[in-house]
Write a structure and sequence with these properties.
heterodimer, A: alpha+beta, 10 helices, 19% helix, B: alpha/beta, six-stranded mixed beta sheet, two-stranded antiparallel sheet, 10 strands
Amino acid sequence: MQFQNPWGALAFALLIPLLLLYLLKQRYEEQTVPSVLLWDAALTQWEAAHPWQRWRKNLLFFLQAAAICLLALALMRPIRPVEGLGRDKVLLVDVSLSMQAVEEGDASRLDRAKAAARSLVETMRPGEEISLMTAGMQNEWLAHRSTDKGELLRLIDGIAPGYGTSQPEEALKLAEALYGGSADGAETPGEAGNPGGETPAAENLPTLHIFTDRDLSAVGGSAVLHNLARNAANAAVTRLSYGRSSSGDLTVLGVIQNNGPATTLSMELWADGALLDVQEIHAETDAAANVLFEGIDGGASQLILALGDPDALEADNRAHCAVAEGSGRRILLRTQRNVFLEKALLLREDVELYKSGADETLPTGNFQLLVLDGGPGMDAPPEGEESDAPDDAPPTEMPHMWTFAPQADGDWFTVADAPPAALRPADSPLARALFQHVDWDNLRLAEAVALQPTDPAAEILLYMGDAPLIVAREREGRKELVFGFDLHNSNLPLEKDFPILVQNALGWFLPLQNGGGGQLAVGQSASIPLLAETKQYDLHLPGGQTLKGQTQRQYENTILPGFYTAIQYGEDGQPLGQDSFAVNAAAGAESELRTAPAGGASGAETAENGVLRNQTLLPLFILAALLVLLVEWWAYHR
Amino acid sequence: MAEQLFDAAFLGQLEQLRLRFRGKAAGQSGGGRRSRQQGISPEFSDFRAYQLGDDLRRIDWNAYARFGRLVTKLFLEERQMRVHLIIDQSASMQLFGKHIMAKRLALTLAYLALSSYDQVSVMPIGEGSGASQASPPLGPLTGKAQFLRTAQYLEELPAARTSPISEEIRRIRFPAGPGVSYLFTDAFSQDGMEDALAYLRYQKQDATLVHILAPEELTPPYEGELRLLDAETGEQKELEITPALAARYRKALDGFCAGLKEACHRNGFRYEAIPANLDIREAVLGHLMD
């Protein structure tokens, strides 16, 4: 028995004045009588007929003391944990990655959990309300106080396994808060919440059944725990990464965690759906092992490292990785000096910025973007670039180019004088994408030139009056952007819009990639590297599902491991490009399957951990106190 | 003190009782009271001057013819009786006015007996009195002239310590021959009344147990937690007097009185229970007279 209000014990102090009352009351009034013979005879007869009268005085004291004790105990609000009572149940099903484990050739943990939940639903009594909740990366209410047995069974059957972690303790608190009420109003699905938070009577609280493979005995006796763990051994691919050599080949590194005895594991490397290599590695007991694959074709875009032999949990037997174009974005800035431009370029975290002057030797290595910051000699692509690459090495790709204030005609445009005039952005998708959040009204130019495209593929983005001031072209994957003014002769670098303009341009030149090496964990938010002229994209999910017409740059619902591919479309519906990222299962803590509680619960379907509900004993104590007072009244008048 | 016990009103009542007593006596064979020997053939005993109310059949006409005076013949059954007034002077009798009632009753009977030329003896009992010589008995006295002396004696009779009534009774020196005894007591004696009554019968006494009880004893006004002190033994009794216990007491008292009555009847005596606050005339006429 426990007490919710220990301060009620102060009422026991009332015993002190009661005792004093009896002690101080021991003053008899004296009365002289002719003889006590008859009183003696009367008392003897009385005590013979009522033997307890001898102790009457003491009996009254004890009855009154008992009444005080019972009232004090009632004030302390006694409660008693009760199992199995109550008409409602809350079923909490753990859908974390480890629940997919299949041990001893039986059904998976999740299947066994669903079977146990089904049995509870099938035996529900009329009027009984059952709530159903899953605990995964997020806790989700599937049913709230439902009396529909069929609906509950359907929901249980529809519970899908997750690939992330779970926190049943948080789900437990949520369930307790919802049924116990909370001051700030807890929300329940489909309901307005529980404002006011009146705590229901203890006997009305439901019994919480937790179906999990976690050891929740430390949570503290508040639910019926159905521990489904059977402590099987398991190995998992916890990490897959790659590096690109100077020749462009890939080196793939995998890390395998062995949660079990020492064993030999067969590791398979797949690239773009084709099996490239198989290696056998030895993993020590409860230790990690590495596997290395070298000389992988640099053109591979999707890598998969998988365990060749199945084990208890197959969902963590493979890891995915999307190969990025390069490890970082190398940008070469040819400028005499332009701190503003330099800072704006470095706002991108993936940018590796290299600088050179017109008369300086260019650094070796491939660059994805070349920025020519105007001025003499700054308008031509670099020539005579020194490279230590061998002569028979494949030619490197031409970088994208961003040119300011060209001095001479280019391959696809001509340069002419342009009188100052008002600036007017073109009405095109690329112009809107590049100039988003850029206000040209504040731009002041000291001098500018008109850029007249000669290539039909070129596009005018900004007019100064009628003269083109900013033009762009994309051909064979190479992008070029030309500004007809020198940044040094304008106030643009001083405007707050300038860094935005630079980032918009970089977004067009070098769209953002996801993750480090192109892989995320289940539940992580993915950035979709949209092109500037993308109207919408279709996202192809690992399960084969395709989400069409997407426009958001962030995708939150990465619940399945595998490759996610976004195919981007322009306004005319033509595909503009695609980008992939990989999502892997939470193969860390969830791969450790030996989580059954010690002391015999291993293999047991259920482990009693106490019940959520406490039965109040307050009415019982009050009734007992009233009965004692009644007996005391009767004894006094007797 | 004499005024408290024997005031003018009381004495006036005594005179009325005497006349009524004489009227009753005149209707009998003679003497002031009915004798136990009533029905036995009378034997001539003596003469006395005629008194108003005497039976005319008892007038000795020969003496009238000879002497010219009316003279009444006296027989054995009408001879002078010995009246013993035994007064319990123990501590219990001193409470609630019981001793006053006892003395008044004793004086009343003494007056009646003295007026009838009977012998009257007053014998207090209780340790320190009677045979203990602290308060020697009075009498035997004869004649109405001894009334004041008797009154004074009773007036000055002190309270006595407690001792069993049976022991005190045995110290009384009864004169030889039968007599009439009145025992005025509350009967609260440790040894009971059986032995005392048996002794009186042994002494050929025609006894009447006058059981005097105060209203406080008949219906105790007490309640709550009391420490009762026995006036005679000093014994203390702590108890809580509840209505139920008071009812039990009354039942015990009824049983006590019934036991005394039965004991008196077994010995051929009379039992009269007289409340201490009863009017003396009513007490005498209603309880002590036939």
